[in-house]
Model the fold of this input.
Amino acid sequence: MPEPRSLDWAQRLIRIDSTSRISNRPVIDLIAAEATRLGLDPQLCPNPDGTKANLLITVPAADGTRSGGVILSGHSDCVPVDGQDWTSDPFTPEVRDGKLYGRGSADMKGYLGVLVTLLPDMIAARLTEPIHLAISYDEEPGCVGGEQIVRDIAERGLAPRAAVIGEPSMMRVITGHKSVTMGVATVRGRAAHSSLTNQGVNAIEYAARLIGFLREIGVSWRTEGPFDEGYEVMYSTIGTNLIHGGIVVNTVPQDCTFEFDFRTIPAVDMYATMDRIRAKAAELEAEMQAVDPATFLRIEARVQVPGLGTDPDADVVALAHRLGGIPSTDQVTYGTEAGQFSRAGMPAVVCGPGDIQVAHRADEFVPLEQLVAAEEFVLSLIAELS
Ligand SMILES: [Zn+2]
Done:
C-alpha cells in the first residue's frame, strides 16, 4: 500500500484538540503559517466574537487571477471524545493495519492534511484557474462557520465555479442531503392554583397544541410526501425530542420549553416550513394573550443548514467524476456545508476520504488508501487546471 504523502500533516492536525467547544485557532494558525511560508496570502476571517475563525487560502492562476476556479472545503473542528472508550489516545495519532486512528482522522483532518500537503504542487503547477482552500470553524454544532464562510468568499470576490466539500464519503460523489433545522419553542403562560384554571394560562397545554401541529406536519410528509427515492427515509421528517415544563401537579404551569428537529428533502423548503410553524405559534400566542398580554410563545431556530440538491448533470459533478470521485446516486443522511455553498451560488458536491460511519465514534480512523485516493483527486484537479 502506498504511503500517503499527507500522513505527517494529518498527524500534526490530529494532535491539536479542536473540539468545537474550544477555539479552532491553533489548527488554522498552523495551516495559515504554512501557507505564508509558501508565499501565499492566507485570509483569516474571525467569527463575531473573535474567538474562532474561518481560513481562506487562494493559490492564484499563473497570470495572477484570484477569482473563479475551484474551491476545496473542509472544517477544522471536531466532536468531543467525552465518555468514549478509545483503544489509543484520540489526540495521539496512530497507524495500525493501514489505518490512521485519531479524533478527526476521517472528519476531517485527514482531508485537510491532504490539502496542505499539496499546496506546493498547486503553486508549482502554474494554474490556469485558481484553487481555493476554505477551512471553517464550528461545522459540528450546525454549520455555523459555513454560514459565514460563504459570505467571506463573496466579500473577497473569489467566485469559484465549483466547490468540493471533502466530508467523509469514501470518495463517492454525493449530490444530495436533507436540510437540517433544530428549533426551540419557549412558552410563557400564567401560573395559578390548579383549581383556578380560569385565571391561568397553561404553558404545557399550549406547548402540546404546537407539538400536535408539528406531528400533523410529520404525518402528512410521511403519508402524502413529497417523496424522493434517493433517500433512505424518502420523505421529510420532524419530531419533538426534548421538553421541560411545570413545577408541581397542583399549579397551572407558567413555563414550558421544547426542542424540535426537522429534516427536509430538496422539494420541501426549510424556511417555508419554519414560517408555517411560526404562523401556528402566533395564532396560539394571540389566544394566550387574550387572557394575559404578558404571556408569549416564541420560536427560535438554533440550527438551520440548507439541504443539497445538486443536478446530477451539473458541471461540478462531471468534474468530480473526471478527478476520480466515484459516481453514486446515494444521498447522504448527514448535513454538510455543501448546501450552504450551493445556496450561495457555488455548485457543490461532497467527496472526501474515509467513512462517515466511523466519524464521531471511538477509534475513528481513515484508511491510508483513502488518503492516497484523496491525494490523487487533488493532483488530478491540479493537472486539469494547469
Ligand atoms: Zn464533518
